[in-house]
Amino acid sequence: MTSEAAELLEILWGRASTAPVSASQLRVLFILERNEGINLRTLADALGSSPPSTSRLCDRLQAVGFVERAVSATSRRELCLYLSHRGSSFLAEVRSRREAALESVLARMPAAKRTALLQGLEAFCATAAAQIQEHEGADARTA
Question: Which candidate, 41, 79, 85, 87, places its Cα nearest to that of 61?
């Protein structure tokens, strides 16, 4: 059931188009939004990708004005990555379209089922956030 729900969610979100960026580029934008000023290597690690591939993703995002690069204050050889104002606006639009797609489905559900879903999602979010924090804490200790 969970994989079916995930697949249906992907379809709904796909209908709420993320053009002009790919799914990988969208993921970069979400990571930069939460980790402003990270360097390329840290971003590549978060994506599970190589720095050259990540750099190409950022090149394309910078070309459309969604990402900005700046020299690090601590090392002139290191670049820091930032979500631009245009990138932030784009993410807000994506979230708005996705929310509208979900609201359309939720509006057709019986009220009791919506309430049960909300309670379940709140528990899921809390548990997932805790698990991610634990994982990131373990990564920081081993680095």
Answer: 87
Q: What is the pLDDT of residues 1-50, one digit of tens each?
A: 778 888 888 888 777 777 788 888 999 999 999 999 999 999 999 999 99
Q: What predicted TM-score, i.e. pTM, was given to this entire model? A: 0.75
Q: Are β-strands 67-71 and 38-39 bridged in parallel, bridged antiparallel, or unpaired?
A: unpaired
Tens digits of residue pLDDT in 85-117:
999 999 999 999 989 988 999 999 999 999 999
Among candidates 43, 21, 35, 29, which has minimal Cα distance to 88? 29
Could you please report the per-residue DSSP string of 20-81? TS-HHHHHHHHHHHHSTTEEHHHHHHHHT--HHHHHHHHHHHHHTTSEEEEE-SS-TT-EEE
Whole-number Å distance between alpha carbons of 47 and 128? 18
- Check if the beta carbon of residue 29 is closer than 8 Å to that of residue 83: yes
- 51, 61 Cβ separation under 8 angstroms: no
Q: Which of 72, 77, 44 shows the shortest CA–CA distance to 58? A: 44
